[in-house]
Amino acid sequence: MQPDRDVPPARKGPGGRTSTARSATSRKAPVVVAPVSETPGVTVEKVAEKPAEKVAEKPAGKPAEKAVAKVPAKTPSVAKAVRTPRKKTAAHPQVVGSALSVRDLSKRFGDIVAVDSVDLEIETGTFYGFVGPNGAGKTTTLAMITGLLRPDSGVVTVHGVDVWGNAAVAKKSLGVLPDNLRLFDRLTGSEFLHHAGALRGLPRETVALRVDDLSEAFGLRNSLDRFVSDYSAGMVKKLAIAAAMIHSPRLLVLDEPFESVDPVSANAVIGILKKYAAAGGTVLLSSHSMTLIERTCDAVAIIAEGRMLASGPMTEVLDGKSLEARFVELAGGATAVEGMEWLQSYSD
Amino acid sequence: MVAELLRLKLRLLFNAFRSRRGAAWAVVGVVLAAAAVAVLAAGAVLAAELDAVTRVRVVVVTGVLVSLCAFFVPVLVSRTHLVPPRALRLFGLRPLEIGTAILLLTLVGPALLLVPVALTPLLLWTGPESQLAAWMVPLIVLEGVLAARVGAVIGAVLPYRPATTAVIRIVFVLLILAGLVVIAAHVAPAVGALLPAAWWPTTLGVVAALAPLRAPAIAEWLSVLPLGTFWRAPAHASVGRPDVVEQDLLLGVVALVVLAVLWIASLRHMLRPTRRVARARVALVPGWFRRLPSTPVGAVAARSFTYWQRDPRYRIALVALPVIPVVTLLAMWIAGIPFSVAVLVPLPLVVLLLAWGTLHNDVAYDSTALWTQLVAQTRGVHDRLGRLLPVLAMGAPVVILGTPIVAWLHGDLLVAPAVFGVASALLLGGIGVSSVASARSPYPATRPGDAPFQQPQVPGSTGGGIQAGSIALILVLASPSIAALVLFVLGIPGAWTWVALASGLGMGLLVFVLGLRVGGSVFDRRAPELLEFAARN
Fold it and tell me: What is the ipTM of this complex?
């Protein structure tokens, strides 16, 4: 496996968690902890350090390109200039250490800033968790990362290929499960998977074989001939995850993959994902379930109000606390508990 | 081995008597069989009293009936193989041996009835033909056993086909009843003569009423069938018609061969190996995805075809199409427009609505499911092609078949090229314009799963402008062709019909190709915005 060369499996602990001492040196993404109150400028500065480190550590990379990439793209014209040189080299996607690199990603809807210059660096072979309160911009960020929502500014590269500049190549190595979007639900489950496979240009026999395996693994075998519109919410999720995997991508971006999925199936999916990550695949998944993220992921990013509060290896972000406690601490969820005394003085 | 198999078969037969229910049925069967033999024997004795010609006819009909029974009774009664051929395979027997063994074993059982039945003709024939009749006995038994075997094989399949079983049962009962009535008609005069004189008036009435059934044609017709041939051969010999006897024997051999071939074929099928035979894995691909290639175009097209088939929003468009010609013709008849002119309108109208109907807003119909194409980065041209293929597949036959019909109804076949030109301008042009419109300016459509006529619950534009604009554009692009058609119909001199053909086909193809390319590039550029639009609505 090509991507495995950079990330020897020995580095992983038995639970898929990274052992602290070694990962601190080998993980290139430093912990960037920024309180919400901090000005965006500071965050950008901290982020800007990362590529420099990278160049120093990684002689295999292309320093010239990296140097261009690290220029914080504030205006669209600069962003264009950044993308252009990538287009030429991107025809042959090279496996570099970083599976996903997000720089200065921003999106505003009208007056509301949904995502505010978010940076994210995910190394190949990482099982990455993405958490945040409701409306924090998780789905928006993931949609921009996966090429579903055009960002106002920023650069997203998947294995060194710009998702928005060279989508055809970048999306080949990208498997996506978006949140809250419909499926073609007049198709049967089997037809939906064949549709997904054929859209990716896979040969028919390959698709049939993979549909077989995926339906077995996700417990969809007996529902393949039913219409997707008759599926339960959890089954729709599982079907969409199967469709995201069918072309064996290098990077899986799953938005709320376990929402309304039963625990047995969720465990099966997690098992598959862990094996996939151990073999050099990269997973980025968002979830509301802190315990699930804490239990399964090697690294985590916390987002609130469109800003990245913390990101990095799990142990470093947690800093000895549970993810839930750390999350509440960073996102400031405790404030809402005060007040509302009227709720305790029952009105009848 | 024969003794072993015989013992097996006998044990199986007697096992039927061990359960109370089985025993009851077996007794009923034995009684019925005995009754049948008794009736046949009595009939044979009685038939000796008939005149020669009538006797031949009765024997012909009886032969056909018995042959039918030998086949149909096992079809309707047999539900399992008492001795499945595959079971014998385990003893190391070869297929041919198994086939012979089972044929022989068949005789040990209900089919044993065939022997007394086959012997009854010997009671009838006493003259020189009795020798021939004696030769026929084993042939009748052989044919009966083969027919019963084939019938039993079919009968074992029938439990899975209740409707077919019902039909076979009805047909069988009707055939037997018809045969019995024909026999009764022939026997009636002789029987009537034996009755007391007081009954004669009634008998005469019955005999007179049955007269048409004594027509010689019936027996002659039945003599052509390869059924009951070994029964009627001695009969024909008795009236001195050796040519017919030869024909009977020949037909009998044909029947035997056909039955033997059927039996061997069924045996082959039943003895086929059921273990997994190593062969190339056949991909189980569902529905339209099997018929179309596994490419992005194929994926979009297969999905589109499936939606045309299943989604009420598309189906309603299809259901409406056949109504259009009727309504327009009716309206124009009321308006007093001559039929020869009115008949030119429906085809272009149908084609226009087919090409424009759902296609010009097809992306909006997908709603947010469009993401599946977005994450695969489906090229715009591929997307457009996939979506238009079903429309083209439905529209092209309509144009090709509709044109000659319209020309024929119009009365002047020379109008055909012009009609073809206009129709293809509207079909291809309509598809081209729609391909651009659906990528460039989608408007809120009925959501998936909603009733087809339900208005989308969205504030703002309902797409009226886009609808009117796109239709107008299609008509403008087709106008040269339409104008030429009008000039031709008005009788203005000039090769207008060919002008209409050339301009229509040319413009149609041009707009089709341009629409595909422009629509494709617009889709490429705006795909994320299209998804955003879908998410908003």
Answer: 0.71
